[in-house]
Amino acid sequence: MGGTGTAVPWDASTIFYNPGGLSMLDGIQVYGGVQLIDARAEYTELPTGNYSIYSQPQTFTTFNVYAGGPIKKGSKWGVGIGVYTPFGSGFNWGDDWAGKYVIQKINLQSVFVQPTGSYRINDMFSVGVGLIYGFGSVDFRQAIPVQDQAGNIGEGELKGNANGFGFNVGLHVKLSDKVQLGLTYRSEVKMKVKSGNADFTVPMSLENMFPNTNFSTSVPLPQVISAGVGFKPIDRLMLQADLEFVGWHSFDSLDFNYSTHTSELQDTHLPRQYKNALAIRVGGNYELIKNTLAVMAGAAYDPTPVPDGVVPPDLPDANRLVLSCGLSYNPIRKLTIMAAFEYTQFAKRNASYDYAGFNGQYQTKAATPGIGVSYTF
Questions:
Q1: What is the pTM of this model?
Q2: Contact 121, 82 (CB under 8 A)
Q3: 212 in Cβ contact with 197 (< 8 Å)
Q4: Running DSSP on this structure, what letter comes out for residue 328?
Q5: In this predicted structure, what is the pLDDT of residue 89?
């Protein structure tokens, strides 16, 4: 449904969308879903357009598992836990493309674990809070402008495990059977790598200049403020809309700090200078067969936080249009089976990364099919 979900607690996934809705569920639920993200980007050299290349095919698997609801029938208290993958990106441009000295490959992955509690103040208001522990990994590889006698260029690869902490709070308001509101705040989670491995492949004569060592870095995953409304104009139709403020401003640079320094190996400061962004999401759910079969559709507009002049090929971001659809089926009263598909079209963007003197035109597309199952006890 376009990524909406702040206002309407459909199931246990409200642990992510709005923890305030957890105590409004009918009972304890278990929910699980898996998505496959297939994304590719095209780079074209500017101004000639004589050289172009696609990033190598990659499929990322994301998942979400939630369990929770009121602690007993009629209780005002709800508890639950969620394990989900909120952020992640990656591109592999190959070892010998035009921008190899800027980036060859990057993967950023994260998993959040969120124990959550919720309290239903009355039939209209409920609140909730979740504590977040995030863990993940960083894998960054780029070429080094040195060669051995066989003409092989040097490479440096940085790998490390990251972790961080945050929280998620929400307010759910049920004005009537037709109108629901939601407001959530998910804090920034600063994912820190304290002792990653920096490995360099260079000619033997330069190994003293590029010693294998350790590094540290941090990647701030942004705070998100989301306000949503759900409206039921007729009995079988629910319409939703979310407005999301995403605090990307904290991602000012990507820094790699090494334990060992030489005249050639110094700490790296890669400018990012991201800006805050405001995303709009809309969606709807229509029951073809009441309590049995429903179809869904949605759309979102997600403007890029990356300003001109700092658009690197490791994340050639642009304004995004997201289209989604899905259906849910209840073969028995307590069991729901879901399928969904999302397509993301990035605007074609002429961009430069002034820090490295690299520019070109990028366009990215991503397709994401997913399946899910929910059961209410």
A1: 0.91
A2: no
A3: yes
A4: E
A5: 77
